[in-house]
Specification:
By secondary structure, the chain is α+β, with helices and mostly antiparallel strands. The protein is about 45% helix and about 15% strand. The strands form 3 sheets. Strands 1, 2, 3, 4, 5, 6, 7, 8, 9, 10 and 11 form an 11-stranded mixed beta sheet that branches. Strands 14-15-20-17-19-18 form a 6-stranded mixed beta barrel. The protein has a 4-stranded antiparallel beta sheet with strand order 13-21-12-22. Helix 8 (about 275-310) runs antiparallel to helix 13 (about 420-455) and helix 21 packs across helix 25 (about 810-819). The chain is elongated. The chain starts with a helix and ends with a helix.
Length: about 800
């Protein structure tokens, strides 16, 4: 075998142009496919980097009677933790932003509130110090709260200080002692998010102010994970938790009725970037697979041309006693060397492209991290793909070259290579397949581009242009509820009179972001829910002026005003769908409903009906939604988004950020403003899937089109070289050079026509398969199918024109003299 490889190396070194083209072709296919796989490996196959035996970690979600998945309450978690035996550990966690430091040195960091067994359950070893212990559950006034920080924060904020352990840091104006540094490989327990701080759940009151959500069974605020015990499976864990859940439902009067549990792989959890990225990434992988088929066909054509040129060599080897198997082995050794070189270059391409996905991350308040590494699994996939592709592409040419017709070959002219009819048929069939596959990839790209533009044109029900957003959380600066309410009143008054500002408002949630927002269980007098229908409705806390600023029309009633303060009767504005579903009419002003925000219902009177808006995604159907006054439901822990609409629409909203910061600083220099972004950029997350798919599919389709054009050019160029004597004879007998050009072009057009016809049939099937993954795309798009052929035409024309032009310039005397 070593002898075969040495000989193969010498043979390839003699043909540097062929070798370079073959390696580059392989590298493009392998690099593109491996790059997509590296993203899938990060998002789907390795959702919890740094976690030991992550495949044993499962997500446990509360299931409503309608089948929706919601978070878990802390009392329920403790009951499951004490009774479940299918898990070696159960843990809970919750993400939240915190202020690190004070004054001008304050920095917004994302933290996880975690149960004390969080790091133990995930089997993570500290980079420095220790992690939480059972004693860290204590929340006595004399006990010093503790925290663990990420290695990234340790290096960025504290300069890799070796004496960080025991150091006191300010979190939300409260002192916390650093007890450990997490390893760099661990980012947190939510797929695709990178956290910098971890604090025990017991410290929530210090960070967020007094609250009863850890004591209230109806407040579902926590994400629950579990590590399966040895020998346990998802099915056995589901069965046990179903039994426990039914037992708890019968024994606890404060438990919401009809709730169950869902035990899921982490990648099926409703929390994490896989919710948005899994489908487009698998679509990309499918298109990358098609690209790999084009690479295989291209490489096979190159090897077939090379084998045709080496027929004399093969005949001589056979005449000297080499067997067919020996010749096949020698030619496959060359393919293996090509695959090795293609793998190396392809991995360089993958390394260069691994961070490309980060370029499509929209502006969002969450700490998204999508860095893909060249892991061992990615390397092995690259090697396997390259080897398989090279062997598959090289097998047919090797078998054909190893069985030459000695008499026919030795009689042939030594000037040009000849190709037997069966090999020529295979040669052209590969080009037809390339054209068909390239058309399928272009169709996928066209569908994705249409989906992206449909998402851009979709009206969400509000006007995002000309609005500046900035995050504010007064509880992190030590404010009580009453103090926060007074601060916000002054802030809104000051902001509304800033030069260039049309209006100012505040809201807890911003629609069409990554955060799903808050919800409440409601009760509507006189409304009889359908079987398994749940009355869980999402809502928003907004200030006066919010609807006019967002340009959400009111169909009836009024906006909130200064009279809707904390001491006034509770009121609400409901969406049109809310009114029609629960009251049967949009005329719902004056009607009442109740919410279950704690242990008892709280009645609200409807004072307005607003037009429906898109809240969680552009593709969602109209859902019931309601708004309540910020003053009536504000707590110290409420996170808020400042909304500023600029007076002149073309003006850049971000230009008003310094004025906003000055106003806040004048009111209280210890209140920081974070995550300033325009509303248009913030809501672009709703088009993240469509934009990513369209952009990356465009790159893959461009590569596929280039490789297909090269394949077509190679076939026609070889045909012209093979038939040079015939062309010279035709010219000598009086044929016009234009006739020769048309002859070559007609062969290319025939190959293209057959390929396009087969490609259109395949594209129709593919379009039906992927339409459900895209927004605003129907299963049959004849216009797009026609448009997808347009990029093929100039590329195919150029690939046909160059060999035809060469054929018209053949010198008849030179061609005949060679004969």
């Amino acid at each position: 075998m070593l002898f075969d490889l040495r000989l193969a190396f010498r043979q390839l070194a003699k043909s540097p142009t062929f070798t370079a083209v073959a390696v580059l072709t392989l590298a493009l296919g392998i690099g593109a496919t491996t790059t997509v796989f590296s993203w899938i490996e990060r998002v789907v196959l390795n959702p919890l980097p740094g976690v030991t035996d992550a495949h044993r970690i499962v997500a446990i979600e509360t299931r409503t009677p309608a089948g929706d998945l919601i978070d878990t309450s802390y009392p329920d978690f403790r009951d499951y933790q004490s009774q479940a035996t299918s898990f070696s550990h159960l843990l809970v966690h919750k993400e939240l932003p915190l202020n690190l430091g004070t004054g001008a040195n304050a920095e917004r960091v994302w933290a996880e509130l975690v149960s004390e067994n969080f790091f133990t359950a995930l089997a993570i070893r500290p980079r420095l110090g220790r992690f939480f212990l059972t004693d860290d559950r204590a929340d006595e006034p004399a006990a010093a709260p503790v925290t663990v920080i990420s290695e990234a924060l340790w290096r960025r904020r504290f300069g890799s200080d070796a004496n960080i352990l025991g150091r006191t840091v300010k979190l939300n104006q409260r002192d916390f002692t650093v007890i450990g540094v997490a390893p760099a490989t661990f980012l947190g327990a939510i797929n695709g998010l990178a956290f910098d701080v971890w604090v025990p759940l017991a410290t929530h009151a210090r960070l967020l102010g007094p609250s009863r959500w850890l004591e209230t069974r109806g407040w579902h605020e926590l994400h629950m994970l579990g590590r399966l015990a040895p020998g346990e499976t998802l099915e056995s864990a589901r069965a046990e938790l179903d039994t426990i859940s039914a037992r708890l439902a019968a024994a606890q009067s404060d438990r919401l009725p009809g709730l169950g549990l869902a035990v899921l792989p982490v990648t099926s959890s409703p929390h994490g970037v896989h919710r948005e990225l899994a489908k487009p990434l698998f679509l990309l992988l499918g298109v990358a697979g098609l690209l790999l088929l084009i690479v295989c066909a291209n490489l096979s054509n190159l090897l077939l041309v090379r084998a045709s040129a080496r027929q004399h060599e093969m005949c001589i080897r056979q005449a000297l006693g080499a067997g067919g198997l020996r010749l096949v082995r020698q030619l496959l050794a060359e393919s293996l060397l090509l695959s090795a070189a293609g793998t190396l270059v392809g991995l360089l391409f993958t390394w260069w492209m691994s961070d490309l996905l980060r370029q499509f991350i929209p502006d969002a308040t969450l700490p998204i991290s999508l860095t893909a590494d060249l892991s061992t699994r990615v390397f092995l996939v690259a090697v396997a793909l390259s080897t398989f592709t090279a062997l598959l592409a090289g097998l047919a040419p090797a078998l054909w070259a190893a069985r030459p017709n000695l008499i026919d070959v030795l009689r042939a002219s030594g000037r040009t290579a000849t190709m037997m009819p069966r090999a020529e048929f295979f040669h052209r069939a590969l080009v037809i397949a390339q054209v068909a596959i390239a058309l399928v990839t272009l169709t996928c790209t066209a569908l994705a581009v249409k989906s992206f533009h449909a998402a851009k044109r979709a009206h969400p029900g509000f006007d995002a242009a000309g609005v500046l957003l900035a995050a504010l959380k007064l509880g992190t600066s030590g404010y009580t509820r009453d103090a926060a309410s007074a601060f916000l009143d002054r802030l809104q008054e000051r902001l509304a009179i800033l030069p260039g500002i049309e209006s100012a408002a505040l809201a807890e949630d911003v629609p069409l972001g990554l955060d799903r927002g808050g919800w409440e269980e409601i009760d509507v007098p006189g409304y009889a829910p359908a079987p398994r229908e749940e009355l869980r409705v999402y809502r928003n806390l907004v200030s006066p002026g919010y609807f006019s600023l967002m340009r959400i029309p009111l169909l009836g009633g009024r906006e909130f005003n200064d009279a809707d303060h904390a001491a006034a009767p509770l009121v609400a504005i409901v969406s049109e769908t809310f009114a029609r579903r629960y009251f049967g009419t949009a005329e719902a002003v004056g009607r009442t409903f109740s919410i279950w925000g704690g242990q008892r219902p709280r009645p609200l009177t409807i004072v307005g009906v607003a037009r429906d808006i898109k809240v969680r995604s552009l593709g969602e159907a109209a859902q019931p939604y309601y708004y309540v006054p910020l003053r009536q439901f504000l707590s110290a822990a409420t996170g808020l988004a400042i909304h500023l609409r600029v007076a002149v629409a073309p003006s850049d909203p971000l230009a008003h950020l310094p004025a906003l910061r000055n106003v806040v600083r004048e009111l209280d220099p210890n209140v920081p403003i974070f995550e300033a972004v325009t509303l248009a950029d913030y809501t672009s997350v709703s088009r993240f899937t469509q934009k990513t798919a369209a952009s990356l599919l465009g790159v893959l389709s461009a590569i596929a089109l280039a490789l297909t054009s090269l394949g077509l050019y190679g076939v026609l160029a070889f045909t012209v070289a093979q038939r040079t004597p015939e062309i010279g004879l035709r010219l000598a007998l009086g044929a016009q050079r234009a006739d020769i050009g048309r002859l070559v072009l007609s062969r290319g057009v025939a190959l293209i026509g057959i390929g396009l016809a087969l490609g259109l049939l395949a594209a129709i099937g593919v379009a039906r398969g992927i339409a459900a993954l895209l927004y605003g795309v129907s299963p049959f798009e004849p216009t797009l199918l026609a448009l997808a052929t347009i990029p093929m035409l100039p590329a195919a024309f150029l690939a046909c024109y160059l060999p035809a032009r060469r054929a018209t310039r053949v010198d008849p005397m030179t061609a005949l003299r060679a004969e």
